[in-house]
Amino acid sequence: MSGVLPGLAFSDEPIAFTPTRAAGLQRLERFAARTGRHYASTRNYDFGAERRTNVSALSPWIRHRLITEEEVLIRVLASHRLGQAEKFVQEVFWRTYFKGFLEQRPSVWSMYQSELVKSYQALESDPSLQLTYSQAVSGATGIDCFDHWVTELIRTGYLHNYARMWMASIWVFTLRLPWELGADFFLRHLLDGDPASNTLSWRWVAGLHTKGKTYLARAENIEKYTNGRFSPTGLARVADPLTETADHPRRPIAPCNAPPSGPYLLLLTEEDLSSADIMPHEPAGVLGLLATHGRSPQPIGEAAQRFTKDALRGILASTDVQPQSADDWSVPILAAAQRIGVRTVATAYPPIGPVRARLDRAESKLAEAGVLLHRVIRNHDSIAWPYANAGFFKLKTKIPTILASLNLLR
Ligand SMILES: Cc1cc2nc3c(=O)[nH]c(=O)nc-3n(C[C@H](O)[C@H](O)[C@H](O)COP(=O)(O)OP(=O)(O)OC[C@H]3O[C@@H](n4cnc5c(N)ncnc54)[C@H](O)[C@@H]3O)c2cc1C
């Protein structure tokens, strides 16, 4: 490896993405001291899987709320003033922004899903497209960095933010593949695979999120920010924005419910594995349901499946309950509610994605059986999401207000 940045001491340690809350908290504790100037000045560098010392790599834990955004912010702001850790705090709010935005433009997700099916169908009738796609997903394009990141993604389930941006840009503008296929490839393999952050980031790169503004991956930039590890050739030199005829109308954020007041069944899902904390009292029983396979019409990568399943299994470890998967969630929910004798089910408010889709489908059957579903929203989301109705800038300027509302400012 050439040209190691001066002044940075690296420990050559690949991150073990252990799917437990304890492991997430430990990583947060180790990285907290670096969330100030160090993060702001080095975060754009991708030093490789062995050297994740300049970014937190917390996303797999935060995405499933094994540790929450609020916990991360509390820890960071315990050792930094907001001004010192501003960059890091803003990054945490990008996740909030994307979730809040998709909540208010749900057709972005439904249209992505239908276009994805069409894109897979198009592969079957277009041998040249099929060849380019096969080369891309097997890391055989001949573009050194791209091929490396494909292998890294499949092996580790994690990529640096810039690697994601460069890959998405090369996918769309150099390989000229449909963006939906690339987004799906990511969603199947990322441990932090998330409908909002993933879909909207791909759209951002392609010029569909901030209309007309694209992200072009440049060889010199890749060489510099990978510290000379790659020197790609043949990259597109222009990135004309993709366009779409659909106009995604803004919808109000779907209603949420008050926390349950009497006995209830706690439904844990991969969207919020810490949701017991937002309930007012202990549940009468717990149920854990997985919707990981609903992230894609294709099989989900082994590492991503394992992370989510083991994370849920770990949270359920003190009970005799095992994680389950089902297409019709009303069946396991009604069975569990009946077994423990309750008519109320409480779960963390599910954002747009496969968990939400399953709960929406199940809810009327639950109601027919006299079982009420409470979707309990976190303060973090209910306070911040309304600001996620346009570009990120609007939410960014409100970060101090949001932090003050959450009582997180010293
Ligand atoms: C094409 C593309 C696809 C992506 N797909 C996903 C995805 O499926 N799931 C996902 O969680 N993130 C996704 N991201 C966003 C971002 O790349 C990751 O959240 C980030 O790289 C995680 O690494 P980290 O924890 O080391 O981040 P750090 O730089 O340490 O940031 C701290 C935390 O802030 C949040 N964060 C940072 N950058 C972003 C961002 N750009 N968008 C949203 N949240 C952010 C994450 O929770 C992260 O853990 C995608 C980005 C791109 C460009």
* Rounded Rg: 21 Å
**Total beta strand runs:** 5
Strand composition percent: 5-15%
Class by SSE composition = mainly alpha
List the domain count as a whole number. Answer: 3
SSE order: HHHHHHHHHHHHEEHEHEHEHHH
- Can you list the strand order of the major beta sheet? 3-2-1-4-5
Indicate the overall shape. globular
Range of helix content: 40-55%
CATH homologous superfamily title of the largest domain: DNA Cyclobutane Dipyrimidine Photolyase, subunit A, domain 3
Give the count of helical stretches: 18
Bound molecules: flavin-adenine dinucleotide
CATH architecture call of the largest domain: Orthogonal Bundle
CATH topology of the largest domain: DNA Cyclobutane Dipyrimidine Photolyase, subunit A, domain 3
Determine and state the CATH class of the largest domain.
Answer: Mainly Alpha
| Low-pLDDT stretches | 1-10
Average of the residue pLDDT scores: 96
Distance between the termini: 43 Å
The biggest sheet amounts to: 5 strands, parallel
In short, what is this structure?
By secondary structure, the chain is mostly helical.
Label this structure with key terms.
410 residues; Serine Threonine Protein Phosphatase 5, Tetratricopeptide repeat; DNA Cyclobutane Dipyrimidine Photolyase, subunit A, domain 3; Rossmann fold; 3 domains; 5-stranded parallel sheet; binds flavin-adenine dinucleotide
Task: Give an overview in words.
This protein folds into 3 domains: 105 residues, Serine Threonine Protein Phosphatase 5, Tetratricopeptide repeat; 119 residues, DNA Cyclobutane Dipyrimidine Photolyase, subunit A, domain 3, CATH 1.10.579.10; 112 residues, HUPs (Rossmann fold, 3-Layer(aba) Sandwich). It is built from 18 helices and 5 strands. α4 runs antiparallel to α5, α5 crosses α11 and α10 packs antiparallel against α11. The longest helix has 19 residues.
